[in-house]
User: Fold this.
Amino acid sequence: MHAMVLTAPGAPLRLEQRDNPVPGPGDLRVKVSACGVCRTDLHVVDGELPDIAYPIIPGHEVVGRVEVLGAGVTSLNVG
Assistant:
């Protein structure tokens, strides 16, 4: 997968190729179509929030489709 990675507060975001995560039990993987950036993400980028473990892939306002289901996921379907 491609990901915009923040390696340190104030550093530029860097496009990286990462392995696709394998969902664990009760989890799923979403193929992201779009991801919004909110003020909290900007606080992280600016280094204004404590206790952030870098590197981090910012963004949590995600639109996409379910790509892989982990074991036990029954309330959603791929697609």
Summary: The mean pLDDT is 95.
